[in-house]
Amino acid sequence: MTTTEAALLAPPQRTLPRMLARQAAQFGDRPAVRIGGHRWRHADLPARASGRAGALQAAGVRRGDRVAILAGNRPEFLEAFLGCGWMGAVAVPINTASMGPQIEYFLADSQAALLVIEGQYLARLATADLSRTALQRIWVVAHEEGTATLQVQGLEATPWPAAGDEMPPAEVGPADTLGILYTSGTTGPSKGVLCPHAQYYWWGVNSLRVLGVRADDVLCTTLPLFHINALNTFAQACLAGCEVVFEPRFSASGFWPAMHACGATVVYLLGAMVPILLAQPPGEAERGHRVRIGLGPGVPGQAGEAFAARTGVRLLEGYGSTETNFVIATATDSPRGGVMGWVLPGFEARVADEHDAELPDGEAGELLLRAREPHAFASGYFNMPDKTVEAWRNLWFHTGDRVVREPDGALRFVDRIKDAIRRRGENISSFEVEQVLQSHPAVATVAVYPVRSELAEDEVMAALILREGLAPPPLELAAWCEARLPYFAVPRWFDIVDDLPRTENGKVQKYKLRERGVTASAWERTPPPRARRG
Question: What average pLDDT does range 43-56 have in this prediction?
Answer without folding.
Answer: 98
